[in-house]
Amino acid sequence: MIYPQLQECRICPRNCGVNRYQIAGYCGAMAELKINLAQLHYGEEPPISGSRGSGTIFFSHCNLRCVFCQNHVISLRGSGQIISEEQLLKVIFELQKQGAHNINLVTPTHYSRPLISVLKAAKEQGLKIPILWNSSAYEHVETLHNLKGLVDIYLPDFKYYHPLYAKKYSHAEDYPAVALKALKEMVAQTGFLQENAAGIATKGVLVRLLLLPNGLSGTKDILRLLADEFGTKLPLSLMAQYYPAAEAVYIPELNRGVKTNEYQAVVELAQEIGFEKVFGQELSCDDQWTPDFTDTDKRGV
Predict the structure, then answer these.
(1) How far apart are CA 156 and CA 206, in angstroms?
(2) pLDDT in tens, 156-206
(3) How far apart are CA 207 and CA 200, in angstroms?
(4) How far is CA 233 from CA 97, 210, 275, in A?
(5) So what's the architecture of 35-292 in CATH?
(6) Which among 107, 144, 151, 174 could bridge 133 via Cys, Cβ 3.0 to 4.6 Å?
(7) Which residues contact 185 (CB under 8 A, 6 or more apart)?
(8) Is 37 helix (H, G, I), strand (E, B) or coil?
(9) In a 3-state reduction of DSSP, which class is residue 6?
């Protein structure tokens, strides 16, 4: 299917305006869907992974340029395989058959238009588990609006408070303002995270905050901002899994993990502010949380 929206692409805030049937957008992606990995994943927050795993599909390319990206093999290099909408639909139902608690679409923003068609088909064909949109929150509100009724759970990052660092480390000076607007739309669509009797997520928003060393993410300021905008019932995940990856190994202020005192200070502030549902994480200084991506670039599966 040919999508007019991809012939002059403005799906994300980059607003490239390019014809992705002819050249790649800023994200590096052409019009075709491209994935690297689809598997049951057990490293997400407990309501997401549960006991049977999250049916995670990792998409190639990304509309950010995070110098520290732990998934840089797929986000920056674009490693992966071209897959048709019909093939992706089969992957989704296979993950459901394997027992996945949800279908977890990782970095899907730049493929949102064809994914709308795939998700509609999945719902029409009887998909029984929730669809989860796992993104950087660098999204157009209009694009998110088109996902209404198709996405059950939103799992957005809120990467930066300060435009200066958003520009320096992700080439997106407007990230804080864009992400806040996107998050408001996500909450308006689905509310805060809801769980069933078994503690498995069924609907709603859970916001992830990845701490960077030296306070560069501005996580303390983000906590105050989110409390002001959404109140303290907004569920949060405070992530301590940062380690220097990609270009970060050459950037002095990013070339170390998060220290215990840095992480603890953020946890204590979240408690002081009064956030009612906060998921924590053990400190990590290596790639134990990073999936084993296939470093290949194939034209089909």
Answers:
(1) 7
(2) 999 999 999 999 999 999 999 999 999 999 999 999 999 999 999 999 999
(3) 16
(4) 34, 19, 6
(5) Alpha-Beta Barrel (3.20)
(6) 151
(7) 141, 144, 145
(8) strand
(9) helix
